[in-house]
Amino acid sequence: MTIEDSLEWHNLFVGQYSLGDFQFKGLINVNSMVGLYWKRSKNFAEIGSGTGIAHLENCDFVKSPSSLYAGTSIGDQGAGITLLPAGPFTFLMRNVTYVGSGGAMIQMGQHCGIFGYNFNVPGSGCNVNYILENVVSVCLLVGSHS
């Protein structure tokens, strides 16, 4: 399943806890505290998924230094922070752009290593592989006019 061309603006969190066989394509997220929250996922089940169906494709995460969430503990984490999933699978990001004032943009492995969240096996959610194809960040400096 694919959600295409979604525009998210000034949300606290965008995303879900557990979602498999699912792709965000053309997602634009502007000035949200967390641009994408995704705790668990899996490899795509479709035949040919090894050819590269991306979980995130052609997505932009943008956060202004003067966004509503600036000054909060997680809101100052940089360019539209994404909290990405963990589990025994490969997570593919293709043509994803982060725009903001620096800091952590991609945080991988939600709840990795937490006993109660990993089927009572510590670390079982930590073995995800991330493939980043054409993932870029653009830093906006405070006071810059460019």
What's this, in brief?
The chain has 146 residues and is mainly β. It is built from no helices and eleven strands. The strands form two sheets. Strands 1, 2, 4, 5, 7, 9 and 11 form a seven-stranded parallel beta sheet that branches. It has a four-stranded parallel beta sheet with strand order 3-6-8-10, with no helix packed on it.
Explain what the structure shows.
This protein has 146 residues and is an all-beta fold. It has one domain. The chain has no helices and eleven strands. It has strands at residues 2-4, 7-9, 13-18, 23-25, 28-30, 34-40, 56-62, 82-83, 90-100, 106-107, 129-139. The strands form two sheets. Strands 1, 2, 4, 5, 7, 9 and 11 form a seven-stranded parallel beta sheet that branches. The protein has a four-stranded parallel beta sheet with strand order 3-6-8-10, with no helix packed on it. The termini are far apart.
Give the overall form. globular
Average pLDDT confidence is 78
The counted number of beta strands is 11
Tell me the span between the first and last alpha carbons: 38 Å
Poorly predicted residue ranges? none
Number of DSSP helical runs = 0
* Radius of gyration, whole Å: 15 Å
Structural class: mainly beta
Q: Helix content range of the residues, please?
A: under 10%
Indicate the proportion of strand residues: 35-45%
Summarize the main sheet: 7 strands, parallel
**Total domain units:** 1
H-E order? EEEEEEEEEEE
